[in-house]
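Weekly structure sync, notes
Attendees: PL (lead), two postdocs, one rotation student
Agenda item 3: pending single-chain targets
PL asked that the sequence for the first pending target be pasted directly into the notes so everyone works from the same version. It is reproduced below exactly as submitted, 235 residues in total.
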Amino acid sequence: MKKHIWFQLKEHPEVYFGQYIVPNFISNSIAIKTAENHWVLISPGEKMLAKWTEKWKSKETKISIIFPNSFHYMGVNSWLDQFPDAKLYASQKAKKRLVKKGFRNIIPLESDQPELPTGYKVLIPPGHRGGDIWLSKKCDKSSSLWITCDSFLNYDRVSNQPIARAMQAILGAAPGLKISQVIKWLLLDGKAAFKPWVLNQLEKDRPGILIPGHGEVECDKKLTDKLRSLIMHRL
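Predicted structure, written out during the meeting:
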């Protein structure tokens, strides 16, 4: 996929996504159109800004930004330069670290949430050191869209960068749908709480499309089964 270009998710036309590199790894920015002049941005990368404003910014455009955890903040200040009145949202757990990074007026998602299209809900997985936030959209009775953060990776190949490639091999992070060892070692501070929660949520939502924080969008009728197997074997 070309970097820094926004692509529409054809199954959910209100959703756009694009890729940027930070640092040496593919990261995803997500933009959800919630109304004629309002968008919700998740992990908005600095290099994604120019193409986005070229396509959609007007005098009336308002945005809300969701930090999907306390580590996904790079690039947000560039967006705030363009949209100084943007509302910022994060989990209460992530907010503590983000405030130390200089962000102000962050709204805890436990108490208030941005406007989202019909069918969306905010998920707050327990046990994440960085205070992860996911979004789920129910498509029908048997399927949903998941927008997650660092819990799942989906690189279609190993990196061309030697250091990044070595790290992916050590951490079991590529290729394909993965739960990296870094999740187990560093990002989960409550695996005993997270594992049953995610297995239960998986059965409730039965996702058929996944937009992870890093890697490629995964569309697969067997995605729920693949994620369940991955969770059972890796956590």
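Discussion points:
- The chain has one domain: 7-234.
- The radius of gyration is 17 Å.
Action: rotation student to compare against the earlier draft before next sync.
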